[in-house]
Design brief:
Helices cover about 35% and strands about 20% of the residues. By secondary structure, it is α/β, with parallel strands linked by helices.
Protein backbone atom coordinates (compact mmCIF):
# COMPACT_ATOMS: atom_id res chain seq x y z
CA UNK A 1 0.00 0.00 0.00
CA UNK A 2 1.55 3.32 -0.98
CA UNK A 3 2.15 5.57 1.97
CA UNK A 4 1.64 8.82 0.10
CA UNK A 5 -1.73 8.97 -1.62
CA UNK A 6 -1.84 12.13 -3.68
CA UNK A 7 -1.38 15.86 -3.74
CA UNK A 8 -4.37 18.18 -3.70
CA UNK A 9 -4.11 21.71 -5.00
CA UNK A 10 -6.50 23.18 -2.47
CA UNK A 11 -5.72 26.88 -2.66
CA UNK A 12 -8.30 29.43 -3.72
CA UNK A 13 -7.10 33.01 -4.23
CA UNK A 14 -9.62 35.67 -3.36
CA UNK A 15 -8.80 38.64 -5.59
CA UNK A 16 -10.64 41.97 -5.90
CA UNK A 17 -13.16 41.93 -8.72
CA UNK A 18 -12.91 44.78 -11.29
CA UNK A 19 -15.91 46.98 -11.79
CA UNK A 20 -17.89 46.70 -15.05
CA UNK A 21 -16.29 48.42 -18.08
CA UNK A 22 -12.97 48.69 -16.22
CA UNK A 23 -14.05 51.77 -14.26
CA UNK A 24 -12.32 52.68 -11.04
CA UNK A 25 -14.28 53.12 -7.81
CA UNK A 26 -13.78 56.87 -8.00
CA UNK A 27 -15.60 56.91 -11.36
CA UNK A 28 -18.88 55.75 -9.81
CA UNK A 29 -21.68 58.35 -9.67
CA UNK A 30 -21.85 60.30 -6.42
CA UNK A 31 -25.02 60.54 -4.36
CA UNK A 32 -25.91 64.02 -3.23
CA UNK A 33 -25.61 64.38 0.59
CA UNK A 34 -28.78 64.75 2.61
CA UNK A 35 -29.65 67.90 4.51
CA UNK A 36 -28.17 68.15 8.06
CA UNK A 37 -31.61 68.06 9.71
CA UNK A 38 -32.48 64.85 7.87
CA UNK A 39 -29.18 63.25 8.94
CA UNK A 40 -29.75 64.14 12.62
CA UNK A 41 -33.25 62.63 12.53
CA UNK A 42 -31.94 59.47 10.89
CA UNK A 43 -29.20 59.10 13.52
CA UNK A 44 -31.72 59.48 16.37
CA UNK A 45 -33.99 56.84 14.82
CA UNK A 46 -31.06 54.44 14.29
CA UNK A 47 -29.94 54.91 17.90
CA UNK A 48 -33.42 54.14 19.21
CA UNK A 49 -33.65 50.98 17.12
CA UNK A 50 -30.24 49.80 18.33
CA UNK A 51 -31.17 50.33 22.00
CA UNK A 52 -34.47 48.49 21.55
CA UNK A 53 -32.73 45.59 19.84
CA UNK A 54 -30.18 45.39 22.66
CA UNK A 55 -32.94 45.41 25.30
CA UNK A 56 -34.60 42.46 23.58
CA UNK A 57 -31.42 40.53 22.78
CA UNK A 58 -29.92 40.67 26.28
CA UNK A 59 -32.73 38.77 28.06
CA UNK A 60 -32.82 36.21 25.23
CA UNK A 61 -29.08 35.67 25.54
CA UNK A 62 -29.35 35.25 29.29
CA UNK A 63 -32.24 32.80 29.21
CA UNK A 64 -31.13 30.72 26.21
CA UNK A 65 -27.51 30.46 27.23
CA UNK A 66 -26.28 31.54 23.79
CA UNK A 67 -22.84 33.10 23.99
CA UNK A 68 -21.97 36.40 22.40
CA UNK A 69 -20.02 36.02 19.16
CA UNK A 70 -16.31 35.60 19.88
CA UNK A 71 -13.34 36.61 17.80
CA UNK A 72 -12.37 33.73 15.46
CA UNK A 73 -9.28 31.90 16.64
CA UNK A 74 -6.08 32.28 14.65
CA UNK A 75 -3.97 29.28 13.59
CA UNK A 76 -1.41 28.27 16.20
CA UNK A 77 2.29 27.47 15.79
CA UNK A 78 1.82 24.02 14.20
CA UNK A 79 -0.54 25.28 11.50
CA UNK A 80 1.57 28.40 10.96
CA UNK A 81 4.57 26.14 10.32
CA UNK A 82 2.58 24.39 7.59
CA UNK A 83 1.65 27.78 6.09
CA UNK A 84 5.28 28.87 6.13
CA UNK A 85 6.32 25.59 4.48
CA UNK A 86 3.63 26.08 1.83
CA UNK A 87 1.94 22.71 2.31
CA UNK A 88 -0.38 20.98 4.80
CA UNK A 89 0.25 17.25 5.28
CA UNK A 90 -2.89 15.48 6.50
CA UNK A 91 -3.13 11.88 7.67
CA UNK A 92 -6.34 10.21 6.46
CA UNK A 93 -7.80 6.75 6.70
CA UNK A 94 -7.34 4.84 3.46
CA UNK A 95 -8.87 1.59 2.24
CA UNK A 96 -9.55 -0.21 -1.04
CA UNK A 97 -12.72 0.92 -2.76
CA UNK A 98 -14.95 -1.74 -4.37
CA UNK A 99 -13.86 -2.39 -7.95
CA UNK A 100 -15.13 -4.51 -10.89
CA UNK A 101 -13.93 -8.15 -10.91
CA UNK A 102 -10.40 -8.61 -12.25
CA UNK A 103 -9.13 -5.16 -11.27
CA UNK A 104 -6.69 -4.71 -8.36
CA UNK A 105 -7.88 -3.31 -5.07
CA UNK A 106 -5.97 -0.07 -4.47
CA UNK A 107 -6.10 1.89 -1.22
CA UNK A 108 -7.73 5.30 -1.63
CA UNK A 109 -8.34 8.06 0.94
CA UNK A 110 -11.65 8.24 2.71
CA UNK A 111 -13.73 10.61 0.51
CA UNK A 112 -15.19 12.63 3.39
CA UNK A 113 -11.81 13.10 5.06
CA UNK A 114 -10.24 14.10 1.73
CA UNK A 115 -12.89 16.80 1.22
CA UNK A 116 -12.41 18.19 4.74
CA UNK A 117 -8.63 18.17 4.33
CA UNK A 118 -8.87 20.07 1.06
CA UNK A 119 -11.21 22.67 2.55
CA UNK A 120 -8.91 23.13 5.53
CA UNK A 121 -6.04 23.75 3.15
CA UNK A 122 -8.12 26.40 1.40
CA UNK A 123 -8.90 28.05 4.72
CA UNK A 124 -5.17 28.21 5.48
CA UNK A 125 -4.26 29.20 1.91
CA UNK A 126 -1.96 26.22 1.20
CA UNK A 127 -2.19 23.04 -0.90
CA UNK A 128 -2.71 19.70 0.84
CA UNK A 129 -0.79 16.43 0.71
CA UNK A 130 -2.78 13.38 1.85
CA UNK A 131 -0.94 10.53 3.55
CA UNK A 132 -2.19 7.15 4.60
CA UNK A 133 -2.65 7.14 8.37
CA UNK A 134 -0.77 4.09 9.72
CA UNK A 135 -2.14 1.78 12.38
CA UNK A 136 0.22 3.30 14.91
CA UNK A 137 -1.41 6.69 14.53
CA UNK A 138 0.08 10.09 13.86
CA UNK A 139 3.03 9.50 16.17
CA UNK A 140 4.75 7.15 13.69
CA UNK A 141 4.99 9.89 11.03
CA UNK A 142 6.83 13.02 12.11
CA UNK A 143 5.94 14.96 8.97
CA UNK A 144 2.13 14.78 9.39
CA UNK A 145 0.72 18.14 10.50
CA UNK A 146 -2.74 16.90 11.43
CA UNK A 147 -4.61 13.60 11.30
CA UNK A 148 -8.20 12.44 11.38
CA UNK A 149 -9.39 10.47 14.39
CA UNK A 150 -8.40 10.19 18.02
CA UNK A 151 -4.75 9.98 19.14
CA UNK A 152 -3.29 6.53 19.76
CA UNK A 153 -1.64 5.74 23.05
CA UNK A 154 -1.24 8.04 26.03
CA UNK A 155 1.59 10.24 24.78
CA UNK A 156 -0.70 12.99 23.49
CA UNK A 157 -1.71 15.85 25.74
CA UNK A 158 -5.32 17.02 25.83
CA UNK A 159 -4.56 20.07 23.66
CA UNK A 160 -3.46 17.75 20.83
CA UNK A 161 -6.97 16.31 20.41
CA UNK A 162 -9.64 18.38 18.63
CA UNK A 163 -13.17 17.32 19.71
CA UNK A 164 -15.89 16.57 17.19
CA UNK A 165 -18.33 19.38 16.43
CA UNK A 166 -21.27 17.15 17.40
CA UNK A 167 -21.73 13.77 19.05
CA UNK A 168 -21.84 11.04 16.37
CA UNK A 169 -24.94 8.86 16.57
CA UNK A 170 -24.60 5.17 15.86
CA UNK A 171 -26.84 2.15 15.41
CA UNK A 172 -26.14 -1.36 16.64
CA UNK A 173 -27.27 -4.20 14.36
CA UNK A 174 -27.79 -7.83 15.34
CA UNK A 175 -29.55 -10.83 13.88
CA UNK A 176 -33.32 -10.54 14.07
CA UNK A 177 -33.68 -13.75 16.09
CA UNK A 178 -30.98 -12.67 18.61
CA UNK A 179 -31.98 -9.08 19.43
CA UNK A 180 -30.07 -6.98 21.95
CA UNK A 181 -31.82 -4.50 24.24
CA UNK A 182 -28.85 -3.63 26.47
CA UNK A 183 -25.29 -2.84 25.46
CA UNK A 184 -23.81 -5.08 28.16
CA UNK A 185 -25.48 -8.04 26.44
CA UNK A 186 -22.48 -7.92 24.09
CA UNK A 187 -20.15 -8.93 26.92
CA UNK A 188 -17.94 -11.70 25.57
CA UNK A 189 -19.32 -11.39 22.03
CA UNK A 190 -17.62 -10.10 18.90
CA UNK A 191 -18.57 -6.73 17.37
CA UNK A 192 -17.50 -5.51 13.93
CA UNK A 193 -16.31 -1.89 13.71
CA UNK A 194 -14.50 0.21 11.14
CA UNK A 195 -11.02 1.60 11.79
CA UNK A 196 -11.18 4.79 13.84
CA UNK A 197 -14.85 4.28 14.68
CA UNK A 198 -16.09 6.61 17.45
CA UNK A 199 -18.25 3.77 18.79
CA UNK A 200 -15.33 1.54 19.78
CA UNK A 201 -15.00 2.88 23.37
CA UNK A 202 -18.64 2.17 24.27
CA UNK A 203 -18.49 -1.35 22.84
CA UNK A 204 -15.21 -2.07 24.62
CA UNK A 205 -16.63 -0.93 27.98
CA UNK A 206 -19.58 -3.26 27.42
CA UNK A 207 -17.14 -6.19 27.22
CA UNK A 208 -17.39 -6.81 23.49
CA UNK A 209 -14.41 -8.16 21.57
CA UNK A 210 -13.79 -5.69 18.76
CA UNK A 211 -12.90 -6.80 15.26
CA UNK A 212 -11.72 -3.86 13.16
CA UNK A 213 -12.06 -3.46 9.39
CA UNK A 214 -10.63 -0.77 7.08
CA UNK A 215 -13.98 0.84 6.19
CA UNK A 216 -17.63 0.93 7.33
CA UNK A 217 -18.64 -1.00 4.20
CA UNK A 218 -16.23 -3.81 4.99
CA UNK A 219 -17.36 -3.92 8.63
CA UNK A 220 -21.01 -4.26 7.55
CA UNK A 221 -20.17 -6.96 4.99
CA UNK A 222 -18.16 -8.89 7.59
CA UNK A 223 -21.12 -8.78 9.96
CA UNK A 224 -23.41 -10.02 7.21
CA UNK A 225 -21.02 -12.92 6.55
CA UNK A 226 -21.39 -13.94 10.21
CA UNK A 227 -17.93 -12.89 11.42
CA UNK A 228 -19.43 -10.89 14.32
CA UNK A 229 -22.49 -11.04 16.54
CA UNK A 230 -23.14 -7.31 16.06
CA UNK A 231 -21.94 -4.29 14.13
CA UNK A 232 -21.98 -0.61 15.12
CA UNK A 233 -21.87 2.09 12.47
CA UNK A 234 -23.15 5.58 11.73
CA UNK A 235 -26.93 5.77 12.11
CA UNK A 236 -27.39 7.46 8.73
CA UNK A 237 -25.45 4.73 6.97
CA UNK A 238 -27.27 1.90 8.76
CA UNK A 239 -30.65 3.42 7.90
CA UNK A 240 -29.70 3.41 4.20
CA UNK A 241 -28.39 -0.15 4.29
CA UNK A 242 -31.45 -1.48 6.12
CA UNK A 243 -33.60 -0.51 3.13
CA UNK A 244 -31.92 -3.20 1.04
CA UNK A 245 -33.92 -6.47 0.89
CA UNK A 246 -30.87 -8.57 1.82
CA UNK A 247 -30.81 -6.93 5.25
CA UNK A 248 -34.32 -7.91 6.31
CA UNK A 249 -32.86 -10.64 8.55
CA UNK A 250 -31.19 -8.07 10.83
CA UNK A 251 -32.58 -5.64 13.36
CA UNK A 252 -31.48 -2.41 14.97
CA UNK A 253 -31.11 -2.48 18.75
CA UNK A 254 -33.19 0.08 20.71
CA UNK A 255 -30.00 1.64 22.09
CA UNK A 256 -28.73 5.20 21.78
CA UNK A 257 -25.11 4.73 20.76
CA UNK A 258 -23.08 7.91 21.22
CA UNK A 259 -19.70 8.23 19.60
CA UNK A 260 -16.63 9.28 21.55
CA UNK A 261 -13.13 10.49 20.82
CA UNK A 262 -11.54 13.29 18.86
CA UNK A 263 -12.27 14.36 15.31
CA UNK A 264 -8.72 15.53 14.62
CA UNK A 265 -5.32 15.02 16.22
CA UNK A 266 -2.27 17.25 16.27
CA UNK A 267 1.21 15.66 16.58
CA UNK A 268 1.98 17.69 19.70
CA UNK A 269 0.16 20.06 22.07
CA UNK A 270 -0.92 23.34 20.45
CA UNK A 271 -3.97 24.79 22.19
CA UNK A 272 -4.28 27.70 19.74
CA UNK A 273 -4.32 25.46 16.66
CA UNK A 274 -6.77 23.14 18.45
CA UNK A 275 -9.14 26.09 19.06
CA UNK A 276 -8.84 27.19 15.45
CA UNK A 277 -9.70 23.69 14.19
CA UNK A 278 -12.57 23.28 16.68
CA UNK A 279 -14.12 26.57 15.51
CA UNK A 280 -13.62 25.56 11.89
CA UNK A 281 -15.41 22.23 12.45
CA UNK A 282 -18.20 23.95 14.41
CA UNK A 283 -18.78 26.34 11.51
CA UNK A 284 -19.10 23.38 9.12
CA UNK A 285 -21.52 21.76 11.56
CA UNK A 286 -23.69 24.89 11.83
CA UNK A 287 -24.05 25.45 8.10
CA UNK A 288 -24.92 21.79 7.45
CA UNK A 289 -21.85 20.84 5.43
CA UNK A 290 -20.82 18.06 7.84
CA UNK A 291 -24.32 16.59 7.68
CA UNK A 292 -24.25 16.69 3.88
CA UNK A 293 -20.87 14.96 3.82
CA UNK A 294 -22.15 12.25 6.18
CA UNK A 295 -25.27 11.73 4.08
CA UNK A 296 -23.23 11.53 0.87
CA UNK A 297 -20.90 8.95 2.46
CA UNK A 298 -23.89 6.89 3.61
CA UNK A 299 -25.44 6.96 0.14
CA UNK A 300 -22.14 5.96 -1.48
CA UNK A 301 -21.60 3.05 0.93
CA UNK A 302 -25.19 1.81 0.51
CA UNK A 303 -24.86 1.94 -3.28
CA UNK A 304 -21.60 -0.01 -3.15
CA UNK A 305 -23.23 -2.48 -0.79
CA UNK A 306 -25.93 -3.11 -3.38
CA UNK A 307 -23.30 -3.60 -6.13
CA UNK A 308 -21.26 -5.99 -3.98
CA UNK A 309 -24.25 -8.12 -3.09
CA UNK A 310 -25.32 -8.26 -6.73
CA UNK A 311 -21.85 -9.50 -7.71
CA UNK A 312 -21.07 -6.53 -9.97
CA UNK A 313 -18.04 -5.38 -7.96
CA UNK A 314 -15.55 -6.89 -5.52
CA UNK A 315 -14.56 -5.53 -2.13
Amino acid sequence: MPDELWHVNGTWWLEPRPLPDGRAASALPRIAPAAPAVLRAARRAAGGIALAAGAVALPLWLFTGTSWPTRPAEPGPLLMQAKARGELVVGVHAYPRPTPPGLPLVAQPDPGEAVLATELGRALGVPVRLRHLPAGGIGSHADIDIAFGAPHGTGHARAAAVPAAATPRGTLLTLRFTPVSRLDALNGKTACVSAGSPFQPALARAGATLRSYPSPLQALLAFRRGECAAVAEDATLVARVMRLPEWRFFTAAPIVLDGEGAALTLPQPDAQSARYLAQWLARWQRDGRLARLRDAAAGDAAFNMMLVESGLICH
